[in-house]
Amino acid sequence: MKVEFAPLSVPLQRRLQTASVVQWVFSFLALAQCCTVAFIALFFTRFWLVGALYAAWWFIDREKPSKGGRRIHSIRNSIVWRYMRDYFPITLVKTAELDPRQNYLMGFHPHGVLAAGAFLNFCTEASGFSTLFPGITPHLMMLSLWFRIPFFRDYLMSGGLVSSDKESASYVLQKPEGGNMLAIIVGGAQEALDARPGSCTLLLKNRKGFVRLAIEHGTPLVPIFSFGENDLFEQVRNPKGSWLRQLQHRLQQIMGISLPLFHARGIFQYSFGLVPYRRPICTVVGKPIPVPRKHRPSEEEVDRVHQKYLNELCKLFEEHKAKYNIPEDRHLEFI
């Protein structure tokens, strides 16, 4: 006998969607600190042996974030991520087929404040990545320092996140059987400082390391633009040259992460808080750009491929911007 459950009411669905987003924001703002405190606290309780065993495991497993990570499919397929997808909502759009016999290097733009589109599309199955791109295993790069935090590192790897160093990237891209996709948020933490509604500014003009990496491995480049990524939060004004921007840059140099002063709505009210606005995100995956393989490419060769990538990214943006309410006179700006 088949048991059928009544559908959830709309108010309850919206509460669950909000709760899923709150836990995601919390995981990036406070979970790392909580994991660190919990790990240290274990040594001052009767469960100190658990902490000691984990420390030993952590040491043995320390290279795993640079060796493709350790994804857990049950976590990637959790219903929590589907509620988070529906909160905004977030949609993944395919414009071309990807051959599962090849590896791909994808550039994700823009970073936004918390890179919601990149996380949900590539670190979960909520938007149907494996259905859209069968045979392709996604990996998303993240700052290496986050993988030095006990417990939190395991949570990150469960979704397919890997450390953002050359060794990690090469491990994914050099697999001869193909079927691997490495996504890099090219603008990085610094680009987050310019993330505000309506912004089309990308920190990409002099970012060429990912292009050199693609040439060294002969890996096709795939541009991605996530429409709506910058619309989730407001940010305190921090124009270049201001004391706030200088302080943020200084902290980034010291800590390795940027600290945008962002705000949006609250949990129970819509005037102020750290919960992102309910605004749609549409992540459009472009066509692969063939890249010739060369072990040590010259600066001219890197520049040539980089310019081709910029042209294809602009083309992707121009072809789709009208569908997502971007004004006709607004274009991408590279800095």
UniProtKB/TrEMBL annotation:
Entry's EC annotation: 2.3.1.-
Keywords, ordered alphabetically: Acyltransferase, Endoplasmic reticulum, Lipid biosynthesis, Lipid metabolism, Membrane, Transferase, Transmembrane, Transmembrane helix
What's an example GO cellular component term for this entry? endoplasmic reticulum membrane
Task: Tell me yes or no: is Signal among this UniProt entry's keywords.
Answer: no
So what family is this one in? Belongs to the diacylglycerol acyltransferase family.
InterPro entries named among the record's database cross-references: DAGAT
**Is-annotated flag, keyword tRNA processing?**
no
* TM segment ranges: 24-57
Q: Which domain of life is it from?
A: Eukaryota
Which species does the entry assign this protein to?
Answer: Buteo japonicus
An MF annotation (GO) of this entry:
2-acylglycerol O-acyltransferase activity
One Gene Ontology BP term is: diacylglycerol biosynthetic process
Q: Where in the cell is it found?
A: Endoplasmic reticulum membrane
Q: What is this protein called?
A: Acyltransferase
Q: How does it sit in the membrane?
A: Multi-pass membrane protein
Q: Name one Pfam family in it.
A: DAGAT
